[in-house]
Amino acid sequence: MYRILIIGPSGAGKSTLARAVGKRLAIPVVHLDAINWGPGWVQRNEAEIRGQIAGWSAQDAWVMDGNYLGHIDLRLPRATAVVWLDLPRHVYFSRAVYRSITQVGRLRDDVGNLERCELEFFTGWVWTYPKRRPRDEALMADLPEGVTGIVLRSSRDVSLFEQALPQSLCAGTGTFDGGSRSGYC
After folding, report:
1. Is residue 184 part of a domain?
2. Which of 12, 80, 105, 171 could be disulfide-bonded to 8 (CB atoms 3.0-4.6 Å)?
3. Smallest Cα–Cα separation from 100: which of 74, 126, 77, 78?
């Protein structure tokens, strides 16, 4: 069974890729933002968040998008693969801005709240991802044995990864370049 974590900065396409992977592999999609944020963008309490994540992590198959490394202890031991969308800042930043501007006031299914367009989100969170990037890099460098690590560094990598599913999940740790892979899941 597939249990896949998708991590990366806001705007990188985590939720979009999670939906595509879920559809392609016929497995449930879990958006961690929807677990973390209650109505009106109010953060849920930690016990409730951890309980929901533990429940989903115990399932046989899933794809989860979102970082929330404070809960990685619940997800990583059950994961079969971690996909890191390590896209350039100009890509994810422009996508986050575009999404917020074009979708402001519309319901985001991956969060369960209305899209907002707030300068603080862009300057204080999206733009500053490079400061948090070393955490993701360290996570990928120290994956548990048996967990496949896949790093996607461009939109092309993401597209090739998606097209090659499920074989692309057998790539082993490293950068996915769309080339042929050996082994079976």
Report:
1. no
2. 12
3. 126
Query: Read out DSSP for 100-147?
Result: HHHHTTSEETTTTEE----HHHIIIIITTHHHHHHHHHHHHHTPPTT-
Q: Residue 117: which residues within 8 A CB-CB, separation 6 or more?
A: 100, 101, 104
Q: What is the pLDDT of residue 178?
A: 46
Q: Which domain holds residue 45?
A: 3-175
Number of domains in the chain: 1
Q: HEC string of 6-69?
A: EECCCCCCHHHHHHHHHHHHCCCEEEHHHHHEEHHHEECCHHHHHHHHHHHHCCCCEEEECCCH
pLDDT the model gives residue 185:
37
Alpha carbons 132 and 136: distance in angstroms, whole number: 7
| Run means of pLDDT, 10 residues per run, the chain, 185 residues | 95 96 97 91 93 97 94 96 96 94 83 82 92 95 92 94 88 48 33
Q: Supply the CATH number for residue 17's domain.
A: 3.40.50.300
